[in-house]
Each structure stands twice: as structure tokens, then as C-alpha cells.
Fold:
Amino acid sequence: MNDMDILPNYDGVIVHDFWKAYYKYLCDHGLCNVHFLRELISISENYDQEWSREMMDLLLNIKACVDETCETSDSLTAKQIMDFKRMYSSITDKGLKENPPPLDLDTKLKKPGRKKQTKPKNLLDRFMNYKDDILRFMHNFEVPFDNNLAERDTRMTKVQQKISGTFRSNQGARNFCRIRGYISTMKKNEISAIDAIEAVFNGMPFMPVA
Structure:
């Protein structure tokens, strides 16, 4: 990540799947809520915990409210934000009641390091400790609800890997990434991929506005 020379100097918001290595960078962070929804569904189905169902509904309700509001405004009202945050805290409080700390009856000397917890408690801790990053999409409409866009951009690389395996040369890999990066950038700028490719062969490639 350092070699790509993007994140070390980036001062915007990166949306990711909570891989801890991202938190070494000092920019703002947003967490992918689609990843959280999958985990909440798993907790609800396998552990029958009410807080996970309520949190899933809340995240989807906030997303729906943001999607509706962004058509006419660039932010939710202060009351909406306050109400959503209050519901969020109420749900995490319920989660703590459903996941009380275990009674420690073992008098043996404990090993150093992080204490082992259940999957529901680990997920609950993330919701409590990273509340601002989880709800960043609610405060800033430019922050997406998930990181699906980034995953879509890497999908063709995985498809190529499955079909053809490795590249025959480093130059071939660079060419592939350059072409895919160009097409992806054009789509983000609402430019037809066919028109963009034709412009390259005409010696006039499209350049995004800074």
C-alpha cells in the first residue's frame, strides 16, 4: 500500500472492510456497511440475538433516509441525526445485555494478550468502538454506504486470474491494469467506455477534470 503512494499522503475518506492495516493511515475512515450486514445476518441466524436484527434494520433505514434526502439536500437534519444516534446507542446497550461478560471462576495465572470472546461480542465491540466510522455515510453524503465500488473495480482482475492464471510478463500485467483503470475512470465520469477507447486510438484520450 505504501508502494502505490496513494494512502500515505491521502487526506480524504477511505471506505474499507475493517482490515486493520488501513488504520495505520491518518486519513478519515468509513467502514463498509454491506460487510456489517452480512455479519449481522450471521449473528441473527446462528445466535438468535435481537440486537443484531435491530442494528441491521437501523442501518438500512438510515441508508434509505440518506438516499431520499440527497435528492433535495446535502445533509440530514440535526434531529434526524440525533434520533438515529440515540437508536444506535440503545441497540448497542441491548447487545451488551445479550452478551454479558462471562464469570471468571478460573484462578489460574492468565496468559497475556487479548481475551477470547464470542463472535457476537466481537462484532458488538466493533459497533461500539467504531461508531463514527460506521455512520460516516450518515454525516457526509459523499461517503458511500459500502465499498462495493472498489470491489467492482478489482473484479475483472480476479476474472482474468481465474481464466488465464498469471500474466506472462510484468509489462502485460501493467498494460491490463492501465486499460482497466482507464475504463473504470471513464465510467465514474459518466463517459461511454466505447467512446473513451475510440478517443485513445484517435490520439485524444479523455482526462478527468481535477
